């Protein structure tokens, strides 16, 4: 089978960021001739600044500024020489001061990203393993992936999940020298902490465990000498820990610092640490400013600054606790996250706050799941009590307005973040709309359904009834699906929206590439349900094509879509689904902006193929319309083999034939991990054999007329005059000998013309082969919404191998 085309993660991120840029909340330019830290200039206005990571305000300290200016005057704007040869004269004092702060050896790096890229490949041995917290900073994840080229296993656990971490430690314990766990001290979006003390206990329990902390957001505002959150929890660094702090952000200068008390490891990293060796060193101004900041950190003044910030944090916390604002994590860090749920609500809320005079950060995918969009608020010493209160008052006023503007409600926001609330759900019924939701197609009018949704594939009324009967009462959970059918009408009973919906068990890697699936399938030999989740989807795992009808010209279109979203949320909860998938859309679909605003990210599916047979009365008339190149392919690779093969069209199969075709189908499924699904039950094929809308195109081996070497499972959608080859089965031992797959495609074409169908839905995959027979290939997209990014990030990690 042809290789499946997969979504590029960067395309998905680009979609989300482009939407936010268009809404005026990302990629902005600050304005003004000077900057105080308290306000920031945007769009010809000065806004109170609640988006800084300079929590102590040291970047505006006159001592740091004077040191930087003096260094430039004495040493120039840069010291253009590798640090491996000669360090800037100011470096020695900086290293001494920072070493005194931590009471341990340090390595100064250009920034944390280059620092991780230099340190991780140097510290981690080929005999080690790496485990990542799935929310650890991108720079750590990116550096860790480099180790895959050296065959170092890189695994991932859910955020702060110590049970999952311990299971991974046990998994690697007998085969790896050291097991590295990499996490942030304080996470940059929600401001929540890593469980440092619990992790140090695990490291005592498992001596192989080494801890790697990125504590750049915990730096300066807490800890002895401002050495950060991690040091405030452990007091003393041990030899099985590496700690990253920053000289930028709260420290007020530039660069980062690695702290390491393991002398052998320290020497190895400092002597040759990749970018630490070959990258440019810090500019003189940055070194001098960092040294001035280090002197403040070594002075009791740092505790006065910390307490000053702490009072502001406590004040903000106290104000928020008196409100119904959805604060995602209650803590004493200077980072806070107010949830908005859907991105469009977040855009609206941020823009409202900017108009009111406050700048806050938008937190969105991939830093957080798309439906967990919100605003990140950072408190600094620049913020005065009166503007802190004014910000809270503005949020209390504008969040409900933003929610109302974007047709959602506060209870949905709380639900998106799994927060407890006393707010009662608000079900705004649109008086002009009637919602019909049924759990069986038998409760839906057949003519109406076939006109709206049953226009392609197996999703006509009869096809869905067949699927309902097939995927129920089976012994395996993956073969029992729930179906729902939604029709929304106006007061005149005119349909505005209709949808086929299902919930079933999916493999999390279903749309990942084959590399990821191969790794996961190895673990499924021990646990067949490893990395599987309940998924709520448009259509079902068996159907392809149009599953959603929307009357784009109807004045109540948007209201109907909003009711559709509410219905999906209800079904997601009732079916305990972890993901919602809206699928089979065109690239320029009119619903793109709406779905993104509702918290869905777009991913590319395998291409879909369709043939319009037009008015060709014979196969000869149709093939005459093919290109000369396609005609040559037809003669050489298909027609030349046809006379020697036993080809038949059967409506019913005997027991032996059913056994054979099921095995051939499984051959294709196992060989096509790019679209990784569970095997269908034998009942599916038995039911096909008994159903008048199904038939089988069978190819037998010439020397053995009882042996089937290829089969196409075809459905007849009579209402839309569409012939649907839904599944294929192949004996790969004979694939090249008889060109079986190509022959099956051609025989499908012949059969559809013989039965006088107008269209053939050839479905996904193998578009190169289908195009040769005149198929129109169309890119298809799905919109995905998940409760967290763990699965998406894990797939990205596995796919990078």
Automatic annotation (TrEMBL):
Origin superkingdom: Bacteria
Keywords from the UniProt entry: Aminotransferase, Transferase
Keyword Ligase set for record: no
GO molecular-function terms, A-Z: pyridoxal phosphate binding; transaminase activity
Domain Aminotransferase class I/classII large, chain residue ranges per copy: 47-393
Protein's UniProt keywords contain Transferase: yes
Cofactor: pyridoxal 5'-phosphate
Protein name, as recorded: Aminotransferase class I/II-fold pyridoxal phosphate-dependent enzyme
């Amino acid at each position: 089978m042809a290789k499946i085309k997969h979504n590029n993660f960067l395309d998905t991120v680009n979609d989300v960021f482009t939407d936010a840029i268009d809404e005026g909340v990302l990629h902005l330019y600050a304005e003004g001739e000077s900057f105080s830290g308290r306000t920031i200039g945007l769009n010809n206005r000065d806004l109170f600044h609640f988006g800084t990571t300079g929590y102590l305000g040291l970047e505006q300290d006159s001592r740091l500024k004077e040191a930087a200016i003096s260094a430039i005057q004495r040493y120039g704007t840069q010291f253009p020489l590798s640090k491996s040869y000669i360090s800037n004269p100011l470096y020695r004092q900086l290293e001494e001061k920072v070493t005194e702060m931590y009471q341990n050896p340090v390595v100064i790096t250009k920034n944390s990203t280059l620092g991780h890229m230099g340190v991780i490949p140097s510290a981690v041995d080929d005999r080690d393993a790496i485990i990542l917290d799935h929310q650890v900073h991108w720079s750590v994840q990116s550096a860790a992936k480099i180790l895959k080229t050296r065959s170092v296993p890189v695994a991932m656990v859910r955020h702060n999940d110590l049970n999952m971490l311990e299971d991974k430690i046990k998994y690697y314990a007998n085969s790896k020298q050291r097991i590295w766990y990499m996490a942030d001290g304080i996470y940059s979006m929600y401001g929540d902490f890593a469980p440092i003390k619990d992790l140090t206990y695990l490291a005592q329990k498992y001596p192989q465990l080494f801890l790697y902390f990125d504590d750049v957001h915990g730096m300066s505002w807490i800890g002895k000498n401002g050495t950060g959150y991690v040091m405030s929890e452990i007091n003393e660094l041990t030899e099985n820990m590496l700690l990253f702090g920053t000289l930028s952000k709260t420290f007020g200068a530039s660069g980062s610092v690695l702290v390491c008390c393991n002398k052998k490891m320290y020497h190895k990293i400092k002597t040759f640490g990749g970018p630490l060796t070959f990258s440019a060193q810090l500019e003189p101004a940055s070194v001098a400013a960092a040294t001035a900041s280090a002197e403040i950190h070594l002075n009791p003044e740092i505790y006065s600054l910390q307490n000053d910030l702490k009072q502001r944090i406590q004040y903000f916390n106290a104000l928020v606790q008196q409100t119904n604002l959805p604060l995602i994590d209650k803590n004493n860090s200077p980072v806070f996250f107010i949830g908005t749920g859907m991105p469009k609500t977040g855009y609206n809320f941020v823009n409202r706050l900017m108009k009111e005079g406050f700048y806050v950060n938008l937190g969105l995918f991939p830093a957080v799941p798309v439906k967990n969009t919100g605003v990140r608020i950072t408190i600094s010493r620049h913020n005065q009590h009166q503007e802190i209160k004014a910000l809270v008052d503005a949020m209390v006023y504008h969040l409900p307005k933003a929610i109302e503007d974007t047709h959602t409600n506060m209870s949905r926001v709380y639900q998106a973040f799994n927060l407890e609330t006393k707010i009662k759900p608000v079900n705004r019924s649109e008086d002009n709309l009637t919602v019909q939701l049924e759990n069986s197609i038998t409760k839906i009018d057949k003519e109406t359904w076939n006109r709206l949704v049953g226009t392609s594939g197996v999703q006509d009324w009869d096809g869905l009834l067949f699927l309902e009967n097939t995927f129920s009462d089976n012994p395996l959970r993956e073969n029992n699906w729930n179906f729902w059918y939604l029709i929304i009408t106006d007061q005149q009973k005119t349909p505005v929206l209709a949808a086929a919906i299902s919930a079933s068990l999916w493999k999390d890697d279903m749309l990942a590439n084959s590399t990821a699936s191969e790794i996961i399938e190895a673990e499924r030999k021990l646990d067949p349900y490893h990395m599987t989740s309940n998924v709520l989807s448009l259509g079902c795992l068996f159907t392809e094509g149009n599953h959603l009808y929307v009357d784009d010209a109807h004045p109540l279109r948007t209201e109907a879509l909003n009711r559709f979203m509410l219905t999906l949320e209800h079904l997601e909860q009732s079916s305990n689904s972890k993901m919602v998938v809206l699928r089979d859309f065109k690239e320029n679909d009119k619903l793109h902006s709406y779905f993104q605003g509702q918290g869905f990210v777009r991913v590319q599916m395998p291409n879909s193929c369709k043939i319009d047979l037009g008015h060709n009365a014979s196969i000869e008339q149709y093939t005459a319309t093919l290109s000369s190149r396609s005609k040559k392919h037809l003669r050489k690779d298909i027609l030349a083999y046809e006379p020697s093969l036993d080809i038949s069209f059967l409506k019913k199969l005997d027991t032996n034939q059913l056994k054979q075709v099921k095995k051939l189908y499984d051959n294709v499924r196992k060989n096509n991990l790019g679209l990784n699904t569970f095997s269908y039950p034998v009942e599916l094929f038995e039911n096909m054999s008994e159903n008048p809308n199904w038939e089988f195109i069978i190819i037998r081996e010439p020397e053995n007329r009882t042996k089937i070497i290829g089969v196409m499972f075809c459905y007849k959608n009579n209402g839309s005059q569409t012939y649907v080859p839904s599944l294929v089965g192949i004996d790969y031992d004979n694939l090249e000998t008889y060109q079986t797959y190509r022959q099956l495609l051609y025989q499908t074409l012949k059969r559809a013309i013989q039965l006088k169908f107008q269209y053939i839905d050839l479905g996904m995959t193998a578009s190169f082969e289908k195009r040769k027979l005149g198929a129109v290939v169309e890119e298809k997209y799905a919109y995905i919404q998940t409760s967290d990014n763990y699965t998406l990030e894990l797939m990205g990690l596995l796919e990078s191998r």
